[in-house]
Design a protein that fits this description.
Order of helices and strands: HEEHHEEEEHHHEHEEEHEHEEHHHHHHH
Strand content: 15-25%
Strand order of the largest sheet: 1-2-3-7-8-6-5-4
Structural class: alpha+beta
Number of strands: 13
Amino acid sequence: MKKIIILLSLIVLIFIGLAYWSLSSTNKTFDTCEIVGFSDVEKIDFKKYDSVLVAASTLYEANDIKNVMQGAQYRKAWATPVKVSILYLNDLEGNVKILEEGGGQQTHSLKLKRDDGTLMTLRSVSKDPSPLIPEIAETLGIENIVVDGISAQHPYAALVVAQLSKKAKIFNTQPKLVFVPKQAALDNYNAKFGNRLFQLEYETEGNAKWLNKVNVDSLVDTDNLQELKIKYPNKVAIDENSLVRARLFDLLIGDWDRHAKQWGWAIENIGDSINAIPLPCDRDNAFFNLEGILPTLISNQAFLPEVQSFEKEIDFLPGLISPFDVYFMRDIPQTVFEKEARQLQVLLTDQAINESFGVWSNDIFELDGNEIIAKIKSRRGKLLDYAIRFKKELIKAEELTKALKGSDDLKLTKSQMACFNCVN
């Protein structure tokens, strides 16, 4: 018995040693992109070029021990250079002006506005998770677990998701990958936002002309939609089929992070009625690939049931039911779930899925394309079953007793907090 205890103790010590070794590979918590071919970025006259070769981040490069302990994930994609167009804000159509800096926890962003009221956003590809690092992690010297977790996100997932969304007839924010050099138009934002890699995309509020949909003239956030529902309870309704399709689509692409602030709504005026069509945004966690001993131990069903790696099958569907789903979808009939699952299977053919990955460079596709495609197709084959199970989980879910994320300032009654249609 004594020998067994000694052996187990030795194994634990070796494990702790390997864990700290992997976590000490870098003391950085944030880094921006790396431009290939230039030694001094500050001396480059980017106006002489129309594109640059950029690696999203080399912060996640790892040795064999780190790959085992913290997972291989999408490290190679982050460090692989891609050709990106250079963007000067003055070249954008519509006399674009900077409104304000965004307030995301990991993503650095700038909100832009055209003269016609159209809102756009520059969202940084590289993430800064330092605000999320708990004090105890810093004390124990294990903050790299949080920092390194970004490597489970694919830096270019949103570009493919936009193409898949288009084929699935789901609104998307139409992200485009751009490199933004330091420039006069950035003014005081140059230090933080200059010489960085971004996704330029439309916002989920403001003018909706860019959607090119008849009778849709504006976009609102979820909290504003709730206010609209309270003001006109009998006039405002959500497009149930579109919302169910969008949420089932999330299951296909493994996007587990879908809280209320990651949705906008296109306001469609039909006679005296208002139809709210969902506009998903923020696709940072699509194709989320969590590997390695440490992340697997931390992100289990007991602690973080919603944080799930993108595999050929959904590991724990109940963990993917969010307060947003309960609030908006609990009373939608199962027939709608079944219909939209079948429709997605029809729309997202093998050809449609394959074509969507054409937005990636050959180097990025060779790293991750075929594996992700295989997983999407596998989930597509099981989508009807997932849809039925999703609805069953919604029925079992309890009504909400607190406001959705981002709606805390709304003065909602108990019944208004319970569900969208409870306002009637």
